[in-house]
Amino acid sequence: MNILGKITSIVAPAPGGNGGNGHGDHGDHHQGSDHQPSLSLSSLSRPPPLHSSGFPEQRIVELNLPVSAVAPAAVANYRPVVITGNLAYVSGQIARDETGGVITGRMQTESDVAAGVAGARACAIATLSALKGTLGDLNRVVRLVKASVFVNSSSDFTAHPKVADGFSDVMVEVFGESGKGARAAVGAILPLQSVVEVESIWEVS
After folding, report:
1. How far apart are CA 118 and CA 189, in angstroms?
2. pTM assigned to the model
3. Which of 24, 53, 101, 181 could anchor a disulfide with 176, C-beta 3.0 to 4.6 Å?
4. What is the distance between the alpha carbons of residues 93 and 201, in angstroms, rounded to a whole number?
5. pLDDT, tens digit, for every residue of 84-132?
6. Residue 173 structural domain
């Protein structure tokens, strides 16, 4: 499937989704009071949400994101996800459509950005699937630490951060501020001619 031709939207952006930071990709405390607020029993019985967006698993359903409970299979001699300590390293996830076919294309001009964003969103879905398939529950995710976004692009293409926002926006939609981490967005020649590839590091519980 060539993404620079006719594109079928993989996921519809959620209303009011937050964008990422630009190419920075590389890159109440109150004064003392004797009054203590009372706590109700109902507030004590509810566990606090881990993320500013609430519970990620619930957000996945609300956003109708096609996240799988099975991690995408490795295509060579590596592991899709490696957990060491409280960090999960997710191997590079390429852009695939609903049928599993690779979304191909090469960014050359600003007019290609929308296609690149769709590819980056597909990488986000693959990343969430990899995490869910490994952790069993996305509510175990504490926060995104860093995402490295590789954009299949020509040497004169400069809108890499805009393309990378396709990935970042999904993570903020699901995890709130906890889905906004450090980021790099760079041009590259990618395997299988994928339009985008994203590798990421996560803090997990």
Report:
1. 18
2. 0.75
3. 53
4. 12
5. 999 999 999 999 998 999 999 999 988 799 999 999 999 999 999 999 9
6. 60-204
